[in-house]
Amino acid sequence: MDIDEIRRLCEADYVRWTDHAIKRIIQRGISRSDVKNVLLNGTIIEQYPDDYPYPSCLVLGITPEKRCLHVICGIGGGEVWIISTYYPVAGKWMDGFSTRVEE
Known about the structure:
Number of strands: 7
CATH topology: YaeB-like fold
Helix content: 25-40%
Distance between the termini: 26 Å
CATH architecture: 2-Layer Sandwich
Radius of gyration: 13 Å
Strand content: 35-45%
Order of helices and strands: HEHHEEEEEE
Shape: globular
């Protein structure tokens, strides 16, 4: 996946939210604008090319409140699909929340 394609789709407002993503942003107090900001300004840190129904990736970005935020998204049907989003936990991530801690 390509961050430029994700940004292009976000800027054109071709964004779809899965039921799971909606449930998680409500549960975790994450705003849609923070998710969009991460997709427009963040960095892809992991790729999941074999995900179904579309390849997906994990994007790391910073919210306006200076919190790290992870967004899992995929591209399919000319849209970017928001799959899930969460605030990463320090014990599971290192290098500024960009690298998983080996288990």
